[in-house]
Amino acid sequence: MKTKVLFIASECVPFIKTGGLADVVGSLPGYFDKERYEVRVIVPNYICIAPEWKEKMEFVTNFYMDMAWRSQYVGVLEMEHEGIRYYFIDNEYYFAGDRPYGYIHEDVEKFAFFSKAALSILPVIGFRPDIVHCHDWQTGLVPVYLKDSFHKGEFYADMKSIMTIHNLKFQGIWNIPAVQDATGLDMSYFTSDKLEAFGDANYLKGGIVYADYVTTVSRTYAEEIKTPHYGEHLDGLMRARSNCLCGIVNGLDHREWDPATDPMIPKNYTEDTFRTDKVKNKLALQKELGLEVDKKKMLIGIVSRLTDQKGFDLIDCIMDELCQDEVQIVVLGTGEDRYENMFRHFAWKYGGKVAACIYYSNELSHKIYAAGDAFLMPSRFEPCGLSQLMSLRYGTLPIVRETGGLKDTVEPYNEFEETGTGFSFTNYNAHEMLSAIRYAESVYYDKKRSWNKMAERAMKADFSWKSSAKQYEALYDRLSPEKG
Ligand code: ADP
Ligand code: GLC
């Protein structure tokens, strides 16, 4: 008998994406052994999902669900996409708006509804998972509900849950009376050993306390979050649960991220042809973005949410110095006004040298990964990070801070042994970062052969889901021994 696994998440490629969570939820299910595991996925049916996907959804059923004192409409739609069955929970009141998240006071009610609805639809769709695999705070209440009212029913009795933390920074925190009202959970849940933290209700904490197992997305981050510096005030809880906590590094969907076949880049290339062909992508991008067209100039790419997490204050400190060098910088991102305006300012000040694309574009992100020589990601913390994996795959060498998944996936260049796949620095310090960038510049301009060999190693490095999917499978087997 196959082990049945249900992913519950707030975003999923190709339907809806705000960050790496969507990439993971949208690609990992396709990498499990289909003979042994059946994986299905539940996501909200946001109104802002593109019409091309909406058209493919099929209506399954609808019913009303008790939610505290309310009775709420639950619609269920489904779609089979690339061999995986997806369910979309429909409710136009909760899932309206032009983006999935917005205001926390609305989001806590929205995701309480989603979490309960995701469990409620299971008997209706006739899928009884052995493991419910939850992702981030938006689904933190699923393990709580499961152990609360749902476990009493035979259908749910032995279901196990896993909570995967993609980012401990976001916990879904709101005041207890409002959360109690939204969730309908008994007041006894809002104590410091359960959902309460520092006087408020905390969804992610609920998930971590009640899940049978907790994972996060790299080994280093799994260690870091047990310390006060990275623990986001939950380090004590992470230490308490450390015998049920592990880090499994994210993989990349090689079907979408492959420079040899990528339809979004001007010139495809492989490990054998990148020395001559990759540069054609750089020339095209320079032209497209109004940069000085020069195939010799070192082009540094950034594709990111523009938030504090990603280390942009370091860039702010040294940008004027960096722009004295022979480099070009391309930024694609949206986020905090402070950083959006900072990059707009530098693009104005260093026209032809800096391009700031302050919007979201999947296509342009592909072009930047392909066109860049280097990719800058100096994160303050980074649970895993997918952008550096995409850069590696495209032979664009990452310059990263040694934290979380960046530390686990980018091997720093060693000029004596000719090993490594990128450049790194340790301390959260702007001039340490600048030194790493300048070291990269010196290798790029003075040791081109070493640079190219490094790019070749980067492209060949294996960051597919294969080995990580195996680790998740082993975890499923452990939690569901009669199946595994
Ligand atoms: P996080 O999830 O913390 O934002 P990751 O590195 O795990 O960081 O994933 C970020 C993902 O979002 C990558 O796929 C990256 O290419 C994509 N991305 C970020 N900003 C943009 C943007 N403005 N346009 C297109 N893709 C973006
Ligand atoms: C989060 C993290 C990022 C990780 C992604 C997917 O958004 O910030 O580091 O790669 O989730 O797990």
Short précis:
This protein is α/β, with parallel strands linked by helices and 484 residues long. 36% of the residues lie in helices and 21% in strands.
Task: List strands and helices in order, with pairings.
Elements: E1 3-8, H1 20-27, E2 37-44, H2 51-54, E3 58-67, E4 70-81, E5 84-90, H3 104-125, E6 131-135, H4 141-147, E7 160-165, E8 173-174, H5 176-183, E9 196-197, E10 200-202, H6 203-210, E11 213-216, H7 219-224, H8 235-240, E12 245-247, H9 274-289, E13 298-306, H10 312-322, E14 327-335, H11 337-349, E15 354-357, H12 362-371, E16 374-377, H13 387-393, E17 397-401, H14 404-409, E18 423-425, H15 430-446, H16 448-460, H17 466-479
Parallel strand pairs: 1-2, 1-6, 2-5, 6-7, 7-11, 11-12, 13-14, 13-16, 14-15, 16-17, 17-18
Antiparallel strand pairs: 3-4, 4-5, 8-10, 9-10
Helix pairs in contact: 3-4, 3-5, 4-6, 9-12, 10-15
Structure, described:
With 484 residues, the chain is α/β, with parallel strands linked by helices. The protein has two domains: 3-251 and 466-479, 3-Layer(aba) Sandwich (Rossmann fold); 274-462, Rossmann fold, CATH 3.40.50. 36% of the residues lie in helices and 21% in strands. It contains 17 helices and 18 strands. It has helices spanning 20-27, 51-54, 104-125, 141-147, 176-183, 203-210, 219-224, 235-240, 274-289, 312-322, 337-349, 362-371, 387-393, 404-409, 430-446, 448-460, 466-479, and strands at 3-8, 37-44, 58-67, 70-81, 84-90, 131-135, 160-165, 173-174, 196-197, 200-202, 213-216, 245-247, 298-306, 327-335, 354-357, 374-377, 397-401, 423-425. A nine-stranded mixed sheet has the order 3-4-5-2-1-6-7-11-12. Strands 15-14-13-16-17-18 form a six-stranded parallel sheet, sandwiched between helices. It has a three-stranded antiparallel sheet with strand order 8-10-9. α14 links the parallel β17 (397-401) and β18 (423-425). α3 runs parallel beside α5 and α9 crosses α12 (362-371). The longest helix has 22 residues, at 104-125. The chain is globular and about 70 Å long. It starts with a strand and ends in a 5-residue tail after the last helix.
